[in-house]
Every structure is written in C-alpha cells, then in structure tokens.
Description:
Elements: H1 5-26, H2 33-39, H3 54-68, H4 70-74, H5 81-92, H6 95-98, H7 106-109, H8 111-114, H9 119-138, H10 147-167, H11 171-188
Amino acid sequence: xxxxxxxxxxxxxxxxxxxxxxxSQHGFDNVSIADIMQHAQLTHGGxxxxxxxxxxxxxxxxxxAARASALAKLLPSGQxxxxxxxxxxxxxxxxxxxxxxxxxxxxxxxATDVAVREGNVxxxxxxxxxxxxxxxxxxxxxxxxxxRERALAGAAMMIGGVAVARALDDxxxxxxxxxACRRVGSELLEQQAE
Length: 194
C-alpha cells in the first residue's frame, strides 16, 4: 500500500532534518544510514524509498541545512545595507552559532567534510556559498572597489571564523576570535556600504 503523499513528504523531511543534525555534528564518514534513520525514529529499510544513497542524502542535506540555518533567517530583512550586513556579522559570528544552539550553517559546519566529497555534494555547497556572497555583494556600493572581491573575502572570513572557533577548546580565545572577525568584517563590509 502506497503512503499518502503528505506522509511521504513529512518522512523525507524527518530524514533530512536528522541528516543535517548528525552530519554537522559528526561528519559524513562517522554517520551511517542506520544512525540517521534511528535519529529520525524510522526503520532503516525505509531510507531507499526517499534517497538513492547516503551521498545523495548528503547533497540534499547541505541545501536543507542552508534553508533551515540561522544564517537564512539573518539574510532578508528589508533594512538598509549597513543594517543587513551588521545583523549578518553579529548573528553569524556569535557563540550560539558556534555551539549549534540554532540550526547550523553548512558553510562553516561542513566545510572540511565537503571538501573531500564527490561532485553533487560540492555543487550543493558551492550553490549555498554563491547565495551568501550574492547577498553580501548586493549590499555593497558600486563605487567603493570590487564588491564581489570584498564579498568573497568577507564570507570566507565569517565561515572560517566559525569553523576555527568550533575547533578551539579555550572559551576566551573563541570569544576573542569571534569579536575580531566581527570587527574586521565590519571594516571590510559595513563601513564600505552607504
């Protein structure tokens, strides 16, 4: 008997949500399909009704993580360019984000893991990175140098700041790092915007 479409969609969302959580905490190689299905409170056998492989799930999880991340909630605000960028820097380079108190951004949480994956996963990651840099670029003025270059540098600094902060075990250093990234990011992005 076939599942109703709505139930199948809900089950797929549960699998994706569990995959995002587990992949961002443990990485691709340290999470099995069985782990994901158990976390989703589903049977292991149902996985292939939704995804062709763990690799296919990972590619979709990168995109799903981006949509559900705290970063996605920071982006469209309709405020001034400076206010949007200030909000992005403050929210992204925050200890709550580093500690995964909110949905993690796959750009920082999966960067090193994605780097060793196959094409479809890296393509999904690249798409998310392009969206972030496009958001930043649109908020920078045309007359103050290369907007795209500053957006790329700013995005890389934010992502790298969170990724490094996650690896540190010294709380004072983590706070210093995040504060330094916010200040430098502000100099690079906000003060240039009108």
